[in-house]
Amino acid sequence: MATGTATQQIKVSDALRVALDHFNNGKLDQAYRLCSQLLTQRPKHAGGTHLMGMIEHKAGQLERAVQRLRHSIQLYDKKPEWFFHLGMALRDSGQPAEAAKAFRRCIALAPRFAHAYYHLGVQLFAAGQFLPAIKALKKTLVLQPEHAEAMASLGGALTKAGQHEQAITLLKEAARRMPKSYNTHFWLGNAQWRAKHLEDAAISYAAAMKLDDSVAELHHNLGVVRREQGYLANAVTSLKKAAKLKPDYVNAHRSIAVVWKELGALDRALDSFERAQQLHPDDPDTIAAIAGTWILRGEYQRAWDMLTPLVDRNPPNVNVNVAYAGLSRRFRRRADAIHRLEHLLESGIYRSNTDALIHIHFSLANLLDDAKRFDDAFVQYVKANDLKKVARTYDHAQFETIFGANKQVFSERGLANLARADNDSQRPVFIVGMPRSGTSLVEQMLSSHPRVFGAGELGHITTFATAIANRRNTDERYPHVATQLTTTVLNQLADKYFGDLDARAPESATRVTDKMPTNFLYLGMVAMLFPKARIIHCVRDPPDTCLSCYFQNFTGRHEYAYDPATLGQFYGLYERYLEHWQQTLPNPFLTVKYEDLVADPEENARRLVRFCGLRWSKKCLAFHETQRDVITSSADQVRRPIYKTSIKRHRKYEKHVAPFRAALGLEEAPKPAAQGRTRKKKSTTVLGTRKRKATRKKSD
After folding, report:
1. What tens digit of pLDDT does each residue of 308-351 get?
2. Strands annotated E in 508-624
3. Nearest-CA neighbor of 204 among 227, 181, 235?
4. Which end of the chain is more exposed for a tag (fewer CB within 10 A), N or C?
5. Can you say how many angstroms the Cα of residue 96 is from the centroid of all Cα atoms in its chain?
6. Measured between alpha carbons, how far is 221 from 255 in angstroms, rounded to an integer?
7. How far apart are CA 157 and CA 131, in angstroms?
């Protein structure tokens, strides 16, 4: 009897070994027959049961495979690879949470099982658990530093967690190792997009598209990048492709709507938003976006009627509550809006959503400011900015280096040796300065003239400056690469710019304004592209400017704006830029002070119109009556007549303004001695005396 049992065990062992060989060689039928015979003989044989589960998994019989693999582990639970196999079957059957449990059991038995960490990380990533995914994927790379798939997945998870630069480094290496991996190029594009390396993102998306151009999300993301670059026509093409590939893709329709809105085509924007709403009628983000479009139109009651039914929904939506808060003052519901935002913060619903918290803190701060609770408002502004600067590092040394390069490349001698585009168009008018310095008011005044079209903040010049290095196949970056540009290349870029102006502006507009404030960084490029273009420089009281920047929830790259010290550094750099440009650029140049514009609107409006080479129009003084879509943060202000509440605004925050003044290098100016009962003259001088050299102003 004992001899018979030993012979039977040998046969079972041999059968299992041969079946496993068949499985490994892809001979599933032979493996299946041997396993069936083995399990008929030994129904509770753990190894046979497990191998049968693996065979069923390979054959696509996922439900049976999962059941079989679970049963084998019930029979014997000491083999880590068995938990790994179960995890893979659960993954393929669409059970990521259960798969993660299996991979964790595998790791508990074998703490150095690299593939288990990798697949655990991938499952957590897919489930939106980005921080645990990052931890698991980092452990994979500790155990297997050359694991390219883990590099790519970690890069994707880091992007989702907002750690974009680290993600880019990993994904570039993964793309080098796996040039045919669609996901790697797609994730790299996502990281570059989020880090605002827009041209690099477009290149990565193009690489992904060569591997698979049937993915709607890819076309959508490329479209959004093209929009942020200012290539709005290209953006529409990509976004329409995304919607065609996936007609029920709500984000594609929303993004198309945003492009139409930026083109000033609010009717088309509303059509696209409403299409998104048809697909998802109760989506609060879409409804909030539609309401936001009506707000831009000045249709405040209509927007209010859309938002009020949504504010009591549970869970509360950030976009709805922020839009509601923005309108609350008009409808005497400010106290209610403050209460709602405070409740959102206290509830902890968005504790792990940094972007949502930033929106809430800024919105609450604006309401408290309006309620004249300035100390409470400042606390919220600080919280919002502290959250912003966590993932947005300002490198002032880099900006200083670039400024030095601009002075060298665009010196008077350097400019004389640089190529120029052939056009002599006077149509573009560039309005530049620090953000929050009055650029919107200047554009609104000018765009009220019958011969002027206000195009808003166009991103073309920044895009050109960052893209030309790629066009020239060189490692040099802007501004050094400007020395290599030919008239042919400059003509191509200028034609692209003119093409977009033509798409936006009517033929009757002989002047088109581009009010991207930070174009002051690229005025050398402007001079090369548009030798006859006019430049209007807007300047405002430095503490007011910096405080207003600190209070603004910027959507673009304004890393300097989230700390008083870096604001002061950047402001000083801006002053030196403008001093340099005014001394070297051949283009017509006019400096306008915000305080002067407010104190004497007509005289300064006349200066602006005269500078643009146009005849005076009284409509420029009735700018607040101009029916024009304004999509910047100043949309509400430009619909009101001139008001003076923004002048010396920093005095309301006297307790908190010292760090800003210190960063600006300001000291209080001594008060002049009384000179008898002379008539008081309106003062438009900037508060304080500069410790640094004052910027030279160029007359008109």
Report:
1. 999 988 788 999 999 999 999 999 999 999 999 999 999 988 88
2. 511-514, 534-539, 589-593
3. 181
4. N
5. 29
6. 9
7. 8
**Beta carbons of 110 and 116 less than 8 angstroms apart:** yes
Question: End-to-end alpha-carbon separation of the chain, Å?
Answer: 113
State whether residue 691 is helix, strand or coil.
coil
Q: Which residue has the tokens 């999300």?
A: 217
Structure token digits, residue 535: 């430049």
Distance, in Å, from the CA atom of 263 to the CA atom of 410, rounded to the nearest integer, reads: 32
Which is nearest to 660 in space by CA: 378, 439, 438? 378
pLDDT value at residue 227? 85
Share of the chain above pLDDT 70, in %: 89
- Are 220 and 248 within 8 A, CB to CB? no
pLDDT per residue over 640-697, tens digit each? 556 566 788 889 999 999 999 999 998 553 444 444 333 333 333 333 333 443 333 3
Contacts of 565 (CB under 8 A, 6+ apart): 659, 663
pTM of the model: 0.71
Peptide bond into 542 cis (omega under 30): no
Tokens of residue 502, six digits: 């033509």
Once rounded to an integer, what is the mean pLDDT over residues 162-188? Answer: 96
Give yes or no for a contact between 147 and 118, defined as CB atoms under 8 angstroms apart. Answer: yes
**Secondary structure (3-state) at 666:** strand
- Grouping H, G, I as helix, E, B as strand and the rest as coil, residue 692 is coil
Which one-letter amino acid corresponds to residue 545?
Answer: T
Packing angle of the helix pair 300-307, 318-328 (nearest 10 deg): 140
Say whether the peptide bond before residue 284 is cis (omega within 30 degrees of 0).
no
Domains, in order of start, for the chain: 396-670+681-690 (3.40.50.300)
